[in-house]
From TrEMBL:
GO terms for molecular function: hydrolase activity; nucleic acid binding. This is NanoRNase/pAp phosphatase. The keyword Cell membrane does not apply. Residues 241-326 form the DHHA1 domain. It comes from Gimesia fumaroli. Signal peptide: none annotated.
Length: 332
């Protein structure tokens, strides 16, 4: 059970009618599933709900959206769309760097601001925070909030929350997974979530270009620090050669951690802007959120990210230098 006292948020929701939901840039299944599940709970309570995110979600998550309208900054969203809201709830982040574009609208409105998050990295967003960094997923927090609101767990909401929690726990293999996590999962299955179908929709819909990209990326895997770090890179040339985009690299960093003896991993993905997106993963004593934060990013101890300026080779060199500092500290 979350350590959060949900009563103040329940009172905020009860006292207001128009509620806007947002999550972080490049929404993953936890962010998108959590906000759409919360939207479902709020609509059951008779609230008017809008969902506006900093950027579009990947096509692979379209199955989560269904009949919901999800808009994003840059797609005709105006200041009026944000001024409409009496309450603005941000889910799955409390960092300005994760709200590009949207932050400008957020700052201009007089709406009541709320954050629901489970990440270590944090900024002051001028919001009332409902945060539990021990929670394995934002989906777990939304599940608890739904209970506190006495809302119905429909098959649709159960599917959204299952996808959210399963992905952010690495399909329940990360150390953040607890017995309570599995209690929630049991409730979601009872309510109609179908694990085999959700897994198929999340992980077994690859295109041939995506598989070819995976082959190129895995062929570039390197190790350092006596095999304790594994990493790989993806260049714009790789995308051109395979007919893919940066979104298609989602999850590839996890393959680096399958190497025996590895304690940490990262993937450096060159963007069209020539910036470089770094996704970090780790286990044991390697707290890679600190490395991500040093580059203006953030996240969890064992799953974080950051955006660096290019070129690609320079970004990788900088990241390796930070890992050297961490490795030397651990060695001592």
């Amino acid at each position: 059970m979350s350590s959060i006292n949900w009563t103040p948020l329940c009172e905020i929701i009860e006292a207001h009618q128009k509620i806007l939901l947002s999550c972080h840039v490049r929404p993953d299944a936890d962010a998108l599933g959590s906000e759409l599940a919360l939207a479902g709970f709020l609509k059951e309570l008779g609230k008017e709900v809008r969902v506006i995110n900093p950027s579009a979600h990947p096509k692979s998550l379209d199955f989560l959206v269904q009949d919901n309208e999800v808009r994003y900054v840059g797609d005709g969203v105006t200041t009026e769309d944000f001024e409409w809201a009496e309450v603005h709830i941000i889910l799955d982040t409390s960092a300005w760097s994760q709200l590009p574009g949207l932050a400008n609208f957020y700052r201009k409105t007089d709406s009541k601001k709320v954050v629901i998050d489970h990440h270590v990295s944090s900024d002051s967003l001028g919001a009332e925070e409902f945060k539990d960094i021990t929670s394995p997923a934002a989906g777990c927090l939304v599940f608890d909030l739904g209970k506190a609101l006495n809302c119905t767990l429909t098959p649709e909401i159960a599917t959204l929350l299952y996808a959210a929690i399963a992905t952010d726990t690495g399909w329940f293999r990360f150390p953040s997974t607890t017995s309570y996590t599995m209690q929630i999962i049991s409730e979601l299955i009872k309510a109609g979530a179908e694990p085999h179908q959700i897994y198929e929709l999340l992980y077994e819909q690859n295109s041939l270009p995506q598989l070819k990209l995976m082959g190129r990326v895995l062929d570039k895997v390197q190790t350092d620090f006596d095999g304790q770090l594994a990493y790989t890179i993806v260049s714009c040339e790789d995308f051109s050669a395979t007919g893919t985009t940066p979104v298609d690299t989602e999850g590839l960093v996890n393959y680096c951690l399958t190497l025996a003896g590895t304690q940490a991993a990262f993937i450096a993905v060159e963007q069209r802007s020539r910036q470089v997106k770094i996704s970090f993963r780790s286990r044991s004593a390697w707290d890679i959120s600190k490395i991500a934060e040093s580059f203006g990013g953030g996240g969890h101890r064992q799953a974080s990210g950051a955006m660096l300026n290019g070129p690609l080779s320079s970004a990788v060199t900088k990241v390796l230098a930070k890992f050297r500092e961490m490795f030397d500290t651990i060695e001592k």
